[in-house]
Amino acid sequence: MKTILIHHEVKGSFEFLSILSNSLPEYLVTTSLDETNPSDVEVLIFWLNVPEYLSRLNNLNLILSCGSGIDHFIHLLDIPKNVCLVRLVDPYLRKRVSNYVLARILEKYFPSFNGIDLELNKERISNLIHEKPIRVGIMGLGLIGDSISKLLIDYGFMVSSWVNKKKLRSISDVYVGKSELYEFAKKSDILVCQLPLTEETNGILDINLFNHMPKGSYLINTGRGEHLVEYDLITAIESGILSGACLDVLKDYKSIENNPLFNNPKIKITPHIAGYIGPKTQALYASEVINNFFKGKFIEGVVDNHLKY
């Protein structure tokens, strides 16, 4: 029988199992390889760590990763070309991160809107934004970055983006590749990083980039902590290049006492709360992805094995 195997480390794995079993009754859904024949497993769902039994799943067609980023395992994963790897970036996760970015911008530039309902007060917010034009630069136009850009444009912000690869995008003002990075930075009053973490993007938020941004601009990082050169951020803020930053990701949350970022009043740090990963939204989205995959329909979030994101 066709089997969906959920690794036990998946957040809320038993709730995940219950939701998938109800939505995909034609499959056997299990959290234990002991309950099925490895050759029957066609779909594998995991989160942080690559399951040790991956090599035994010789009829695997589809792998679903519960995390929006794959940098923590992609170099450890030897995926056959016929196996599709998909990031489960469900619509709720996209909306949550987008709303987080919008709320942080309003908190910084329009504090009178702090804590208010964004949707109920959309017209008021949009009117004020039109009176005080601000250009937001978004680094990365994946599923989440694209969602952020659409929301900010909908509220009246001017939005541009920087990406590594040229292809058709949902917004028109897009800069591509290293040669256009600093030109993009010059137009970013607010810089939002939502890039995948790769060798090329590690440390991309550095003093060279900050020096090309408008004086007094602001940084929001919802990507990965490794994108940021922390010392360079402090230098940029102390010199007045940046007016501050909001970081939802850090390289290390454990060394709080020794990290000068936590003692800087111009830096807001949140404990990786922008997104949400949980079975209630991800499992239903996963069932949709599985259905569409085996019916040959288009699915979002497919990882490019060459680009590693």
Globally, the shape reads: elongated
Which structural class do you get from the secondary structure elements?
Answer: alpha/beta
Domain module count:
2
CATH class assignment of the largest domain? Alpha Beta
Spans of 5+ residues with little confidence (pLDDT < 50)?
none
CATH topology of the largest domain: Rossmann fold
Strand order of the largest sheet: 8-7-6-9-10-11-12
Known CATH architecture of the largest domain: 3-Layer(aba) Sandwich
Mean pLDDT: 93
| CATH homologous superfamily classification of the largest domain | NAD(P)-binding Rossmann-like Domain
Radius of gyration: 21 Å
Q: Helix share of residues? A: 25-40%
What can you tell me about this protein's structure?
- The structure is a single chain.
- This protein is of the alpha/beta class and about 300 residues long.
- The protein folds into two domains: about 5-90 and about 275-295, NAD(P)-binding Rossmann-like Domain (Rossmann fold); about 90-270, 3-Layer(aba) Sandwich (Rossmann fold).
- Helices cover about 30% and strands about 15% of the residues.
- It has eight helices and twelve strands.
- The chain has helices at about 15-25, 90-110, 120-130, 145-155, 180-185, 205-210, 230-240, 280-295, and strands at about 5, 30, 40-45, 60-65, 85, 135-140, 160-165, 175, 190-195, 215-220, 240-245, 265-270.
- The strands form two sheets. A seven-stranded parallel β-sheet has the order 8-7-6-9-10-11-12.
- Strand 6 (about 135-140), helix 4 (about 145-155) and strand 7 (about 160-165) form a beta-alpha-beta unit.
- It is elongated.
- The relative contact order is 0.15.
